[in-house]
Amino acid sequence: MPMQIVPYNLVVSSDAQRSPELDVQKLVNWYIVLDQYAPKVKALNPTPGTEFYYQFNDGKDPVRKLYVYRNSNIAVVGNKVYLYNLNENATPIFASVIGNIKTNIGFVCICNNNEWLMITDGVAGYAYNFTTGVFSQILTVNGFTDNPFYCAYFNSFFVVCTKDSNQWQTSAENDPTNWIIIDSPNISYLSYKADTFQGIAAINQRLLLFGNYIAETWYSGSSPVNPQFPYLRDNNAVFEFGCAASQTIATGFSSNTGVVVWLRQIKDGISAICMTDGSQITKISTSAIDWAIQQYSIINDAYAFCFNIDGLSFYEITFPTQNVTWLANITTLDSNGQASWSNLEMLDGSAHAITSHAYNGTVNSHFVGSSLGPYLLKLKSSVNTNFLVANGAKTTDPIKRYAIGSIFYTPNYDKFIIHQFIMDFETGVGILNSSESNPVIFFSASYDNGHTYRFIGKSQLGKQGDYNLKQIFYNLGISRRFIAKIESYDAVRMYLIGSSLLITPLPTFPVQG
After folding, report:
1. What does pTM read for this prediction?
2. What does the domain layout of the chain look like in residue ranges?
3. What's the distance, CA 347 to chain centroid?
4. Beta strand 197-203 with 206-211: parallel, antiparallel or unpaired?
5. Residue 351: strand pairing partners
6. Is the CB of residue 248 less than 8 Å from the CB of residue 265?
7. DSSP string, 88-106
8. Contact 171/157 with Cβ under 8 angstroms?
9. Terminal alpha carbon distance of the chain
10. What is the architecture of the domain spanning 4-46+402-505?
11. How far is CA 123 from the centre of its chain?
């Protein structure tokens, strides 16, 4: 039979199934981008790297939370709340402690209106006035709950739910220090079914209340029964699922609308990662990812955040006990409503070492908090290394990017000769006068459905300006299956456009009776 050039699917999402015989796809420190007008619609882009920006103190506490409102930049590190300012060059002018909170570790929630910043940590609530610079604990004598959990600001009122309870309440209008309305606290309940709070999120004129196994949607309005309470429940938007991990609730944007993304839970178990704009709910995780998460020993310590960079929106979720980070590109969903997924890893294979994200539009910069200590980092697509602390010293680590493609086989599972494996990378990306002057890609192949891989060799991506290279590997044997695995360790631009195989199918001879 004649030789054939056939496409090979190396531009894949992380979607490894229970058995490698079914699917072994994995994507690490790359993500898929789509361009319907390009010759090849899908490509792999490198995930952003991190670089050191500022160290808040000499301790070892990681950054728990970052938050930005206009040019007021807030960081919670240990039990200290920092305010840091930037100039037009995005360099720090100063960072000062504006207050202390009661906890050193764990969950922190922050919201604001034009005048006030509000913080809750599961033990107490705190208010900071942007104008006066006064930071204070919110007093329970002012009607505030004893165990404030999530907080939000929604249509002129601050909202807080009580930890391990179904109770939630609103503040006086635009005042997080006062929670007494007409001589009593303004209280309501998560009441569709018996449950306790996991979190609150405000999006697109909707207030979402998450329990463990239910979710309720509320909107602005009042009822004759309780006219002082400023919200009404939408009884057409009450759902039979809740949230498995409070810190996975994150707000972001997708398809030009605000969205909330979270790790969903039903009474029968962990079910999926979901996204909603406040009306329609979409399951964005695949069955393979759902299965992987269900194998984790602990999931309620997971944390997540959304960010938008290079015109794309992402949801990043880390399971610290499992030491795994997943990244979803939520900008474009497939026909099933699912996102394309990849994994983020440090060089040693551990989870992505960042805890939270905040974007400052004034200086057009993405900031992330480090899980390695009190370090403020920049998240930049132009950076191809990750910040690292080694032996107490600040340094950088190469980003290992690798992909395991789909299983290739002929329609009848016949054997085929593999003459060539061809990849189409952006070339000429070497950096002059550096260790990255002549970057390479490493290639391995599996012929047994991904159970084992054999290292084949490496190919150059080109010195600076060498734009005409191709990554071609020859004479790869005879097989019924083929899986490609590629790896890169060089701190350069790393864009994969596609790949293909040159094969000769071998005829199947009938068995003589």
Report:
1. 0.95
2. 4-46+402-505
3. 18
4. antiparallel
5. 345
6. no
7. TT--EEEEEEEEE-S-SSS
8. yes
9. 25
10. Sandwich (2.60)
11. 27
